[in-house]
Request: fold
Amino acid sequence: MSNRRNLLKIIGVSCLSWILYPYKFVLSETKKIINQNLTSKQKEIMFNEGTERPFTSELLQEKRKGFYHCANCGNKLFSSEAKFDSGTGWPSFSEALPGAYHCAKCGVHHGHVFDDGPSSTGKRFCNNGLCLLFIPET
Ligand SMILES: [Zn+2]
Reply:
């Protein structure tokens, strides 16, 4: 009896992944180069989940007030209010603007989210600086 139930579960899961497979494909297909001036390194991160070398981003030193935008589509991703020095060598933020991480607009890869962030959120959004465009508040 329990074997049969397990078998049904396995069949169920594989059916589900077949049903979801085309959606996954569609999602990855929606990533498009919008900014025609992206460098090959930026493309490598955004479209092939690459990572920039730590401590190379100019944005690590950026302390001005403003917003960090997606370097591909310009979507606003982070506020300077959420930026903190994580010591990891990548620009880090305690929270993304609502629904913004892994750019919700163009779908490109930006970095990774970890659960060891500052106490306010517990999250650390570790972002490749090359994927961000900082626009200071004027
Ligand atoms: Zn984008």
Remarks:
- The chain is about 25% helix and 20% strand.
